[in-house]
Amino acid sequence: MSSEDPEQRDRMSEVDMNPPKRLRTAESHTGTELEVEKSTVDVSIIMPVYNASCWLDECLQAIVDQDFTGSMELSVFDDASTDDSRKVVEGWREKLEARLISVVVSGHCSPKPRGVGFAKNKAISQSCGQYLCFQDADDIMLPQRIRLQYDACVLHQNSLIGCRVQRVPEGSTERYTRWINTLSQHQLITQVYTSHGPTVIMPTWFCSRKWYLKVGLFDEGGKGVPEDLLFFYQSLRQGGGLSRVDECLLVYRYHEKATTHSVTEETIWKLRVDFLQERVLSQWENFTIWNAGKQGRKLYRCLSPINQKKVKAFCDVDENKIQKGFYTYEESKDMTGGILEENLNSLQLKEGIDFCHFN
């Protein structure tokens, strides 16, 4: 008996990846139930799952509690979990269907998970919603999430829609959480080069299916690949917009097992530098790097030879730092105590035109 190709084995182990679309039924005035033509649902909740059984009860209860009155489905793809995640999801099927939320569950049982990007693509391919609501299995959506993001997405068909979040445990990643929740609509676009990653974070994404298909599949490189940032940048390249519902609609959990921890800082740094050069520096004849320390020098070294020649100076607002000749990271509410912002305002420089934040 010949050995199987790994790709073929994975395909064979996947369960019903493209099930037929559900049929909606309607009652006539005589009370007779009639079958209607195949139809999509309004919103598909896209949930990749890997060893998430300890969080699923809270997550799924929150889906049942949604106040959205349109049609919904939950599409789950289990990425080779070794716990009872699939069993937990199946245990909620009756409650979800009683809430008129159809449930599609599949997965694979290969020795290793294929990664979040792979699981998201599979969950989407087996779903049929006109709009996609991305939900991490360890997070909790608030009751109004789907209703408010659906309303926003109907108005912004070619955009990624986000929301504000509550971080748990309270106080974890305090600075990052503040950044997520306080960016202005303008800054959602201008600060896409910062070290934090997508300005509209992946756990809050909501978009139309047609826009997902326009942008293309999530990267399926697996562990260590920032599939969310890659998709985010590709969406911007395609002319996509960004928007945020300015209400807290998601409880965003922080824990050591989160897949984001598998992505190295160097991987993110390279993607950001490449995107900065593509979108901004290629349009500028020359520029200064406003950081005379370690990070500024690191940025310079990562630039292409062409863009290195455009650098006219390294600047800084901290005289002590310049005199020391090296950079020391210091935690603070903002890295310059407001001095940088005062300088920029005094020069009447506009973010996204005259300067951009990278770090």
UniProtKB/TrEMBL annotation:
Q: CDD domains, per this entry?
A: beta3GnTL1_like (cd06913)
Q: Which GO terms describe its molecular function?
A: hexosyltransferase activity
Which segments carry the region annotation Disordered?
1-34
Q: SUPFAM superfamilies per the record?
A: Nucleotide-diphospho-sugar transferases
Q: Where is the Glycosyltransferase 2-like domain?
A: 44-212
**Which Pfam families does this one have?**
Glycos_transf_2 (PF00535)
Q: Which stretches does UniProt call biased (Basic and acidic residues)?
A: 1-14, 24-34
Q: Which protein is depicted?
A: UDP-GlcNAc:betaGal beta-1,3-N-acetylglucosaminyltransferase-like 1
Lineage here is: Eukaryota, Metazoa, Chordata, Craniata, Vertebrata
